[in-house]
Structures are given as C-alpha cells and as structure tokens.
Design goal:
Helix content: 10-25%
Number of strands: 7
CATH topology of one domain: Thrombin, subunit H
CATH architecture of one domain: Beta Barrel
Largest sheet: 6 strands, antiparallel, barrel
Strand content: over 45%
Shape: elongated
Strand order of the largest sheet: 1-2-3-6-5-4
Distance between the termini: 67 Å
C-alpha cells in the first residue's frame, strides 16, 4: 500500500474496497423505462412521462415548461381521461404533476 500511495494512487484494503464498491453500485442504478403520455390542451399536445399510475391518480413529468390549467385531459396507453392537478412541483428534471383522474373513462383513442 505504501508504494501505491507514493505513486499517487490510493488503494483500500480488500474488505473496505468491497464495501466502497457496494455503496457506489447502490447509488448508481439504472432507471426503469417509463411510459410516455400526452396532455391534451385543445389543439396543442404537451408530451409527458408517466412516473406512477393507478386507477384514480397519476404522477407525470412535463419536460417542457408550459402553462397548464388545473383541469386537463391526459392520454396514457391510448386511454383518454380527464383529470385535475392536485399538486405541482418544479424540479431540476421538469415539472411534476400529481393528477386526480376521473373514475370513468372519457373516450378510447383509436
């Protein structure tokens, strides 16, 4: 270990190195592929990424900063539903919206 430090390279003993590698792998995981969706605003369409979804709610991320109304129409997996924005949170990766979706499907996309 003394020679490695002299050369400007720090090395860790085997048990500490294994723990360091385990911690590094824990923080750098690959993201799961996300579904894409659309927010329909009359004649314009705002693309979004679906982060979470249930039968009555969804959390989506809008990458383009747009003025979005409180009540909107969203299309996820070909299903078009009306929703209300329950919470908005601006983050470094975009605008996250928590949507309360109506229980009844509005229409099915062809």
């Amino acid at each position: 270990m003394r020679q490695a430090q002299d050369a400007g390279v720090a090395t860790l003993p085997a048990p500490r190195k294994a723990v360091a590698e385990l911690m590094a792998n824990k923080h750098f995981t690959h993201d799961v592929p996300r579904k894409s969706g659309k927010i329909l605003l009359g004649s314009s369409i705002v693309p979004c990424i679906v982060l979470e979804q249930s039968s009555v709610s969804a959390r989506v991320r809008v990458l383009v900063a747009a003025r979005l109304p409180e009540r909107l129409t969203v299309e996820i997996d070909g299903e078009v539903r009306q929703g209300r924005v329950g919470l908005r949170k601006q983050g470094p990766l975009g605008l996250d919206l928590w949507l309360d979706l109506k229980a009844v499907e509005i229409s099915a996309a062809a």
